[in-house]
Amino acid sequence: MTHPAGPPTGAPVVCVRHPDRPTGLACTRCGRPSCPECLREAAVGYQCVDCVHQGRHDVRRATTVAGAVVGSRPVVVPALVVLNLLVFAVTAAQAGSIAANTRSALFAAWALSPGTVAAGEWWRTVTSGFLHIGPVHLAFNMFALWVIGRDMEGLLGRGRFLAVYLLGMLGGAAAVMLLYGPGEYVAGASGAVFGLMGGLAVALVRLKRPLNQVGGLLAVNLALGFFVPGISWQAHVGGLLAGAAATAVLVYAPPARRAPLQAGGLAAIAVVLLVVIAVGALLAGT
């Protein structure tokens, strides 16, 4: 009776991936014989390609204070910029004018006013954040979104960044609903952009970085809203507070319970903002 216990005595050792290749080398991690083509230099000795592949999956990638993977490329910011540009292009085409794009049908259907929301047109609290009044308004907001947004998306991660952006937008809408008259209209991504500014300030405090430049930028832009006609300081302040609160939830959540605390905190902020919007709608409808 024969026993297939292994190769005959004296048989050459072959590579586990290439049985036709005799070898005297072996992986320092798993010990399996491997030919030179299947080995990769490691910190100690050489490892086979299978162990190298497994090691890459086992190594945990570095994360930020918000839990985002370090080094991820921004995707949400370019998408938001493109979306805002497309909406502006549609309004300009409908109005037949870049400077007077507010005459378009889309602008009339999407701009925010407390009275229209009170009448049931709730979508305006979001759609108004993608409208812009003329090219200068658009250029300013998109430049700010591009400069601030890329760093914030890298710090927070794509999903968390989008949440802060949208909550900043809702925060601006909530302030407008409370502080504007029923027939007054507002539009623009300024609430969302100020939400990112407030979030950046909170993140810098969390990271113990200086606030000099960001603080100055915030002060100047907030002052413009109070002293320059046609700029909604209400949307700026509302977006700033909402974005700062949302970012604080994300960057101060303890790592051990990060996911549930972040999700619960963002949901709580969203509920508060929706309640404020509802109260504003009730006041505008009376």
Automatic annotation (TrEMBL):
Keywords: Hydrolase, Membrane, Protease, Transmembrane, Transmembrane helix. Residues 120-251 form the Peptidase S54 rhomboid domain. GO terms for molecular function: serine-type endopeptidase activity. One of its GO terms (cellular component) is membrane. Gene3D superfamilies: Rhomboid-like. The chain crosses the membrane at residues 75-93, 105-123, 129-149, 161-180, 186-207, 214-231, 237-253, 265-284. It is found in: Membrane. It comes from the Bacteria. It is a multi-pass membrane protein. GO terms for biological process: proteolysis. The keyword Cytoplasm does not apply. The keyword Transmembrane helix applies. InterPro entries: Peptidase_S54_rhomboid_dom, Rhomboid-like_sf, Rhomboid_protease_S54. Belongs to the peptidase S54 family. This is Rhomboid family intramembrane serine protease. It comes from Pseudonocardia broussonetiae.
